[in-house]
Amino acid sequence: MATCEVCGNDYEMSFEVHAAGAVHTFDSIECAAQRMAPMCENCGCRILGHGLQADGQFFCCAHCARRKGVSELTDHA
Predict the structure, then answer these.
(1) Inter-CA distances, 68 with 39, 43, 60, 77, Å
(2) What pLDDT, in 10s, does the model give residues 26-76?
(3) Exposed e or buried b for every residue in 6-30, given b needs 16+ CB within 10 A?
(4) Which domain of life is it from (predicted)?
(5) Could you give the CA distance from residue 6 to residue 35 in angstroms, rounded to a whole number?
(6) Pick from 45, 43, 13: which is nearest to 26 by CA?
(7) Up-side HSE of residue 66: CA atoms within 13 Å toward CB?
(8) Element (DSSP H or E) covering residue 18
(9) Dist CA 71 CA 57 (whole Å)
């Protein structure tokens, strides 16, 4: 068993995520998202799907990007 680095749960079905040269251990997708998913620079929500990125900033949608002065991004349907 391994301990989740977010909640501290020692769980027999924990899993590892290898990203950017580091190894992370989680007991659930929820904990993995809390640690790994970027946050929108405008509204602060976790970006769990296709977000937008400009100049090193992450946004959940084009509306939030525009609110921060980034006008060239558009949402994709």
Answers:
(1) 14, 10, 12, 22
(2) 999 999 999 999 999 999 999 998 899 999 999 999 999 999 999 998 887
(3) beeeebeebeeeeeeeeebbbbbee
(4) Bacteria
(5) 7
(6) 13
(7) 7
(8) strand 15-19
(9) 13
- CB burial class (10 A; 0-12, 13-18, 19+) of residue 33? middle
Section 9-14 average pLDDT: 96
Give the single-character DSSP code of 48: -
- d(Cα 25, Cα 30) in Å, to the nearest integer? 12
Burial class (CB in 10 A: 0-12, 13-18, 19+), 44: exposed
Q: What are phi and psi of 73, to 5 degrees?
A: -85, 145
